[in-house]
Write a structure and sequence with these properties.
331 residues, alpha/beta, Spore Coat Polysaccharide Biosynthesis Protein SpsA, Chain A, eight-stranded mixed beta sheet, 8 strands
């Protein structure tokens, strides 16, 4: 249980969101004001937008919002680093001032009204609260089927992940400080955070239609995230390659014995179709195996470079608050 009002920061990653951002800002501000009025959060709570190298007017809109209202703050990347890096940067920046941080997408398809339940779970002692969608009816047929298959595959591979949880979650300061100790460059927060082991719970919510603009999560980005998730959390694919290699070798050995027996029995062996099928199968298996191992080697390569996961170009806080800090620094 917490003895004082919670300082809550909403972290909102943004990439080319100029169409939806003004509406999102209004909805988030109204919600924060209601929560403050109901004494569920502190008046020091803020909404933090993270501009992930947008090519449109997203950052200028964020700067304008910050000048107009102290409830807003902004983090601006030097270039595009990706959705996961934007979420991480926002959480790491906010954790110095916040008791708890909630991450939510800028399109607000994730129900903002679920915040009340998030806070109830947090107040009851949970350090992590996962937002889980009730269904995937808003997705197309292809996305729905591939998403469910992907979650099943991750579970088969032994990955500890919450099914149908995206990046709508609450994390306490304690959990955020622990997350800061994880240094991997290849980020997959949905799989990384459940490994921390803190007390957690789930809040279910309905997914809404996007109010404006288009989703920035292209098929290519989803595929990249899927590969990152598997290779970041499990080495089972490499184990499968080893087992498959053994089985294929064993099968090939049996084929050799069968061919020798067949030859000495005086039977004519056409062999062309069999040779072609086996060659194609072995070739495909070899290329697939090299590709899987290559993915892991590529991840190791990126990790050994120890490059920054993001670069912050500028941060905009409440102007009055910044002036007070400057004055305190002079005194």
């Amino acid at each position: 249980m917490h003895t004082r009002s919670t300082i809550l920061y909403l972290v909102v990653p943004c990439y080319n969101e100029e169409e939806v951002l003004p509406m999102t800002a209004k909805v988030l501000k109204d919600k924060m004001e209601r929560l403050v009025k109901e004494e569920k959060i502190s008046s020091q709570s803020r909404v933090m937008f993270v501009n992930d190298g947008s090519k449109d007017k997203t950052w200028s809109i964020i700067e304008g919002l910050c000048r107009q209202d102290k409830v807003f703050s902004g983090v601006n990347f030097s270039r595009n680093f990706g959705h996961q890096s934007a979420i991480l940067a926002g959480m790491m920046t906010a954790k110095e001032r916040a008791d708890a941080v909630v991450t939510i997408d800028a399109d607000l398809q994730q129900d903002i009204e679920a915040l009340d339940e998030f806070l109830e779970k947090y107040e009851s002692g949970c350090d992590i609260v996962y937002g889980v969608r009730n269904d995937r009816n808003s997705d197309g047929f292809f996305k729905k089927k591939t998403a469910l298959a992907y979650y099943k595959l991750l579970h088969i591979l032994g990955c500890k992940i919450i099914t149908n949880h995206a990046d709508y979650r609450l994390m306490s300061k304690k959990a955020l400080n622990t997350l800061a100790e994880y240094k991997e460059v290849n980020l997959f927060l949905r799989g990384l955070i459940p490994q921390m082991g803190y007390k957690s719970d789930v809040v279910y919510f309905d997914v809404k239609e996007r109010e404006a603009g288009q989703s920035k999560y292209t098929l290519k980005k989803m595929m990249t995230l899927a590969v990152d998730g598997i290779t970041s959390l499990s080495v089972q694919p490499i184990h499968f390659i080893t087992i498959m290699g053994f089985l294929v070798s064993f099968f090939s050995f049996l084929m050799i014995i069968w061919c020798i027996v067949d030859y000495f029995s005086g039977h004519t062996v056409p062999g062309y179709a069999t040779t072609l099928v086996v060659s194609l199968f072995m070739g495909g298996l070899t290329i697939l195996s090299l590709g899987i191992v290559g993915e892991y080697i590529g991840k190791i390569y990126m990790e050994t470079k120890e490059r920054p996961r993001y670069i912050i170009d500028s941060i905009v806080w409440d102007p009055e608050e910044e002036e007070e800090k400057k004055e305190d620094g002079k005194n």
